[in-house]
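Before relying on records like the one below, remember that each one covers exactly one chain. Contacts with other chains, cofactors or solvent are not represented anywhere in the record.
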Amino acid sequence: MGRRTELSVFRDALDDAGQTIAAIFLHGPGGIGKSALLQRYADEARDRGRTVVELDGRAISPTPAAFREAAGDALTDDRTVLLVDGFEHCQGLELWLRDRFLPRLPVGVLVVLAGRRPPDLGWQSDAGWAEALCVLRLTELDRDDAVELLERRDVPAEAHKPVLRFTSGHPLALCLAAESAGRSGTWSPDRYMVETLLARMVGEPPSAAHRRALEVCAHAHTTTEDLLRSVLPDDAGTLFAWLRRLPFIDSGRHGLFPTGAAREAIDTDLRWRDPHGYRALHDTIRSHVIERIRDAPEAGVLPAATAFCYLNRRGGVISRFITYTRIGEFVECRYLPEDRADVLRLALSAEGPASAALVEFWLERQPEGFWVHKRADTGEVVGFMGQLRSAHCSTEELSADPVVAAAWAHCRAAGPVRSGETITITRFLVAAGSYMRPSPVMDMMLWRVVAGWVRDERVAWSFAAMADPEYWEPLMAYTDQQLVQRCRPEVGGRAYGIFAHDWRVTPPDRWLAVGALQALFGPRAMPKIGAGLELTVLARGEFDTAVRDALRAWRQPDLLATNPLARSRLVTDQADGSPAERLRAALNEAVDGMRDDPREAKLHRAVVATYRQGAPTQEAAAERLGLPFSTYRRHLAAGVERICERLWDRELRGPASEAGS
């Protein structure tokens, strides 16, 4: 099935009277089809009247004498084709074969070595072998050949998609899946299939640490030594070097990754064998990836976001909207003025002249919000996205763009932005040939959007404008982006749905915590992210008033419990205690934050004497501190103002900000 390139190379070698190619070296992981291809080679050679000698490396003692004896006719008959399967079992003979055995064979003998590991680099550095050896790496079957194999084995068409997703075209995995698919339209790998793939492709790891390294590599999108260190701190370097030598592990720009069937078999086995260990591993990898998204320089953000989204592939939703295919074929670039014509051309083609005019409008105002997607090899522009960001919107902008106007109208009605906050609007998502449907370019756009959600803690609202919102709603609901009802702004006759998320109500850390469970168990097993939360979003003036009221109610838990701050992010981000206790704890942190600063120590004393120690009157507090009343009032006012500033900063940024304020 398939293997057209490999068969063509072999046929050309058989027919080449000048014997340009004297040897072919096939390599690839277990079950990839090396033995089946060698059988095809044997049939082709016999059809041409050639003598075929077939050796199995597992059955030969790995000594020159044993190999020479097994080769037999190849030593004397120049019409012989020598086929060696399982060469990894006698790969210790590679140097002897290259330098001693093969050069002494009669001219005309064609040798094919097939094993799991690639040939030694000595072949390429040897001038005599550089052209005489052809190295072929066997990979999975392409989709058409894989489907043909399934059809020949009468696998129902409805089962093709899950089978192809699990096997990635791996021949042995396809054959095993075909045996278990039956006549029903549903399919999932059974234990026999998983165990067979593990035995044939992976084998028995040398130690528990090696097994864990394999499990990390199978679960993560790509594996670096840095990621391994987060799970296996003592052996990361050694284990990474071991992984990269395995025949079913590939290397890419961003790290190591297993072939598809090996990845699925290892990950599926761990999930079945050790559910608690699987979740712990998932959580560790996920934390590492989130840290990368937040800390990465600009060039590293998209790979980190890709890795994050990949961890959600088991959740049953994201995999329907993200392809994870052809990664590396396209690149994301910041918009530059020279991209203008291509961007406007794509906008005109995909959305029409009215939308293209709005793209031009926003390019003039926020060019920094646009990303352009190009083919890596040619630089051709094949997509772009525009993400607008602002703390306010002018009358001209609201009048020009009905989508932006609708987003701002919802924001003002449901929870206006406050001082220091912004909103983002994912306004344009255009990919050539696949407008508003999953594609490799759309993948990159969605990854960029997710990275923004995780990285930017000053955003109050995020919006996304999507054509055909009903199609995208499952993905948006999974990520807690809610469709704004009765809101369908039109541009050029095309209606858009607007999805919204208030990050003050469900901030990034809470959103990520619930998402971690959905990634493993799917959305049905989890409550809605905001369920049970009734957060209050206060404007700055309202917030400061609530802080002053809370200070006055320091010793009155019932009043603290009804204070608006008890339902704010300031309090709900804390895990322990009643709302009143959490509010008092937040006040304590802010007050005590002034104690160790010499410039604020006098403010701290005024606040403590007035509220924490409960002086009956301000005059009594001033007398207790030994201060003139006017000086005391000045210190108290400045102290309360500083507390408001500290708590407001924490409200906007989250608990971590207080430590650094």
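The chain is about 50% helix and 15% strand.
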